[in-house]
Prior knowledge:
alpha+beta; 6-stranded mixed β-sheet; 5-stranded antiparallel β-sheet; 14 helices
Amino acid sequence: xxxxxxQHVHAELDRLTGNAPVVGIGYSGGGDxxxxxxxxxxxxRQAGRTLIAFIVDHALRAESAEEAEQAQRAAExxxxxxxxxxxxxxxxxxxxxxxxxxxxxxxLAQQAAARDIDYLLLAHTRDDQSExxxxxxxxxxxxxxxxxxxxxxxxxxxxxxxGLTLVRPLLQASRAELRSYLDHQDTSWIEDPSNLDRRYTRxxxxxxxxxxxxxxxxxxxxxxxxSQLAKVDRAEALSAxxxxxxxxxxxxxxxxxxQVDAYKTATGRQRQRCLEAVVAAVSGxxxxxxxxxxxxxxxxxxxxxxxxQGVMIEHWRGSGWVLRDPGDMxxxxxxxxxxxxxxxxxxxxxxxxxxxxxxxAEPLGQDYSGLDGTVxxxxxxxxxxxxxxxxxxxxxxxxxxxxRHERLECEPLLVQRFxxxxxxxxxxxxxxxxxxxxx
Length: 439
């Protein structure tokens, strides 16, 4: 059993991590992650790779710091460099689990970026998959939610997680198989007491599935169903990507032009799946949802204007446009915003920049002073006030995607966001990213 498990995971790691010389792993010291650490370290030695462990201390329990140090020693004992990442600051009184997840992935993404790591291993098992599907069913999810966890997925945080792919090589392995493997390794691991705390939904779900198993229902069927749905989901994503190559052009200034005639030829699901990724790219939001996509899709088809999810649908010069929503970016009568969102070197979730300290980045607004107005002629009128302007002493030095300055660097991230959102990993060989860029 141990030999076949090891061979399977080694093959998965070869398949899912490409030729990356350095691979990260999220490590807690618990049984699942310790088994993955041992197997992955063996694989890394054989494959000539480097494995680096990241241990997140959420600081939610008094014992967590000591447990993180214990996990660090366990990783270093088998030759894996390990770094403890601590969630600092006050913790929210409500929504704690969601906040902890956000913090965890942000910490992991930051550390991965600092070390040029493109792949991060996570130790989710077939049992975790079954629990995830059951929880989503209980919450009323449709079939797409029941796809569950994917073997590869983009980091859920943006823009910190751009370029980082989460890899789950244990989704076909059970906890029982991992415990059997660990028993043969003569090793120990940390048992997290929160795994028995019924205040957590996953703990209650785990206990409920145990009861169903005793009544004759095999929870593995849920994980098998998720695998089948994942194939449907993948086919849908590839279909949406083919539509994008026919109908979508991202601009350097932060919008997207759609050829409505080509867009109309697609099925409803093709259009919606493609539009979801376009909206994620143009809005620059860290979190996007499917809410409002039907409304935006209808506006594109009907030649109407609409707003939702941080974008605006506009029709101009024979094309449909997905633009940054001025109200979302600049504020409305009943809602003010405080400047441009900035996360590290990324502005508004759309542009990676390198600016001198005396240069200010802000929306162009209605102050065009000192700007040659002809550069705006290829930009829809309602998009112009949301253009990213770079000013020194009030004077415009550059406009993202339109006016360059030799000392300012500004790289649009829309295509990268679209691809990562669509493919949840490397793009297929046939996908030509140049075809979705406005020249």
